[in-house]
């Protein structure tokens, strides 16, 4: 109910970036806290969740330009938001630790703050946030407390996605240095892929 109230007032408050932090799985949209319980969650279907944005995006006369889904396995939700007209979506393909998601978001918003308020380059802010998060994930102090899923890279930043009307971006996994040659790929930055690509990376 509170989220619905926020969406109804988005235009009046000129909301341009909407940040959602919570729980998500590949089979559902977001898991909201049940209104009758502070410990139980209620799953909301992806389609039902995404449709809430249909009339509030900048492409539909609204103000929302970018949605940040700081939740595990939220890529499916992100794709549906794009289908309903959200110009830019930041989401996670994999599971993600809370600390990784928070650090990435902090850098992302700092990068946006350094830009002109009239015209924002969300893709550039995303790319600027990826590299510091990758560096932190390789530090010894950032080792995970739990064993990651087989598809989860250290720090999970390699499985973050930027879905955009201008083209999607998926950071490449770091490449290990080849022993004996002394040369390895040091360019592990984001790369651009066309929207609606059917090949998005590793499963």
- Overall shape: globular
Give the low-pLDDT segments: 140-148, 176-203
Sheet having the most strands: 4 strands, mixed
The strand count comes to 9
The sequence of SSEs as H and E is HEEEEHEHEHHEEE
Mean pLDDT: 76
| Through-space gap between termini | 35 Å
Strand order of the largest sheet: 1-5-6-7
**Count of helical regions:** 5
Helix content: 25-40%
Q: What fraction of residues sit in β-strands? A: 15-25%
* Class derived from helix and strand content: alpha/beta
For the CA atoms, what is the radius of gyration? 17 Å
Question: Would you kindly provide a written description of the structure presented here, covering whatever features stand out?
Answer:
- This protein is an alpha/beta fold.
- It is built from five helices and nine strands, in the order H-E-E-E-E-H-E-H-E-H-H-E-E-E.
- The strands form three sheets. Strands 1-5-6-7 form a four-stranded mixed sheet, with helices on both faces. Strands 2-3-4 form a three-stranded antiparallel sheet, with no helix packed on it. Strands 8-9 form a two-stranded antiparallel ribbon.
- Strand 2 and strand 3 (30-33) form a beta hairpin.
- The two termini are 35 Å apart.
- Residues 140-148 and 176-203 have low confidence and may be disordered.
Ordered list of secondary-structure elements with their pairings:
Elements: H1 2-8, E1 17-21, E2 23-24, E3 30-33, E4 41-43, H2 46-51, E5 66-70, H3 75-83, E6 88-92, H4 98-113, H5 122-137, E7 160-164, E8 168-171, E9 190-193
Parallel strand pairs: 1-5, 5-6
Antiparallel strand pairs: 2-3, 3-4, 6-7, 8-9
Helix pairs in contact: 4-5
